[in-house]
Amino acid sequence: MKETVTKQDIISNLSQKLDMPEEQVGIFISKLNDLLLKNLPTNKEITIDGVGTFSLVWSTYHKNTKLKDGEPREFYKLKFEPAESLKSTVNQEFSHLHPVELSEETASNVPLDTLSRQAEEIKSVLSEIQNEETADNTVQKDYVDIQESHTETTPSSIEVSDIRQETDVHSDYQPYTPTTTESITVDEPTNTQPDDDYRYRPDNEYSGVDTTDNSYKPYDTATTTDTSSHQAYIPNDEEDRHTSKYDEDRYTPKYDDNTYTPNYANNRYVPNDDSNTRKGFGGDGYANDDYNADEVIVHRRKSWLWIILAVVVIALAAGGYFMYKPQVCGFVDGLLPKRDTVAQQQEELDSTVIYEPVADTEIEAETEADTLFFENRKYTEYIDTVAIGAGETMARLAEKYYGSRLFWVYIFEANRDNIANANNISVGTRLKIPKLDSRLTNTNDNVLMGKVKKLEIALGK
Amino acid sequence: MDNKELIVKLSRSTKATQEKTKEFLDAFVEEISDKLGAGNHIEFLDFGVLQTVVREQKIITNPKTQKRTLYPPKNVVELKVTKSVKEHIKNIQK
């Protein structure tokens, strides 16, 4: 019986051992307890020689654990690992035992108790089997008695274990040997009686195989005692022969040979030509009497034609588009609604000035006027900067600042960094209006005006 | 904290010499081991109860080598901590 030694018992025992009063021992123990509790959070591990190690381990509850109010999910746990000396003193009872490696032989050695139990279970099962076997033996014997009249020889005693030993049971067994010397005529159907061959006796219990021989059905059920050798079976034309409307030519009874042909006995139509197994409308061709393989038309989808047609159409459309693109684009633009705003119309008028294209060559200075034209065209000072609005043009700005629309070229040259296409300036573009010499903006000077026009052409408008 | 540090701190707190505290600790440990060796449970300070538990024999299979070994039974010491100490330790922050 395990007893629980209380704290007071320990104190009293220690006081006796150490010759100290119990109060002092109690103080020692309480101080030790406080010391451990206070120092565990900081040191996380305290060892007492001979007892073990006290440590704090950080652990967590599972995420699905339901916690109480205020309970933390992650917390410290106190773990105690006993010292080796303490382990050995506690385990003295089993210290002499050592781990044993089990081999395959020893692993199969089941304890005796279980073996005995298993033996008893097996005994009961064996007895049940034996009881069933004895019951089967009696049934087999009755079955043999019923068949006595049909067999010439009857076995005297039958045992369950001897069922499959044919030599012991059926001593008059003679294997079947087909004869080829006899001639068979079609017009004389002969009643056949199979030999005393166990294979043709469906109810024979001595057959070790499935005795239900479906391939043979004697048409003359009257049994005879004719034990002659086996004769080939010839079907009766009127009753048994299967004739279809379309396949009279195919149906050729196989009685030219002397071989036994059991298929016809079941009135089963078996076509000789196996190549025509294609199924037409109506599913299985054998079941449908109106089926004629030659008349069946199989429609197969010719999807590859449609694919080729689509590719040709796409190629033609692409070729036509690339060849006649301008006409197509013009046609499409014509279909689209035209712009009706006045400003846009004015812009179009401004931009419809057509000049003959001239090579982009510098106009050389020939006269004084030319030098003036070229030297004074330095855009270093600017009067104003204007943001282009909708419908505004450089020509209008030139007319406003210089007095003539033709002087737009100066504005264009001064803002060439900002303008990509003189005919198409985006709204909001800030243009600097350069300060020019008065001589460059003299509209009465015909020579100057001619130069300006040439400059227009040179800029490629 | 080692045993030495424990002795030093305990002597300071009890205002006794280190030799005496060492004697006390040795006697304390001896008492515990004797009682546990006899198979008894001990109330260890205010922490909880030190008790011996029997681990039954078992067959362990080495998954690598598939060798089976039969391990004998053995007695083991366990500390069953009291509720108050558990909650006190749970509230300690990391």
Overall average residue pLDDT of chain B: 87
Residue ranges of chain A: pLDDT <50 for 5 or more in a row? none
Q: Between the first and last Cα atoms of chain A, what is the distance in angstroms?
A: 119 Å
- Tally of DSSP β-strands of chain B: 5
Overview of the structural elements:
The complex is a heterodimer of chains A (461) and B (94). Chain A has 461 residues and is mostly helical. Chain A has helices at 7-18, 22-43, 84-90, 104-108, 112-146, 166-169, 237-240, 303-323, 325-335, 342-351, 368-375, 394-401, 408-414, 446-458; strands at residues 4-5, 45-48, 52-60, 74-82, 100-102, 382-387, 430-434. Helices cover 36% and strands 8% of the residues of chain A. Chain A is elongated and about 140 Å long. Chain B folds into 2 domains: 1-40; 50-94, no CATH class. Chain B contains 3 helices and 5 strands. In chain B, the strands form 2 sheets. In chain B, strands 1-2-5 form a 3-stranded antiparallel β-sheet. Chain B has a two-stranded antiparallel sheet with strand order 3-4. The radius of gyration of chain B is 19 Å and the shape is elongated. The two termini of chain B are 18 Å apart. Chains A and B meet through β1, α1, α2, β2 and β3 of A and α1, α2, β1, β2 and β4 of B.
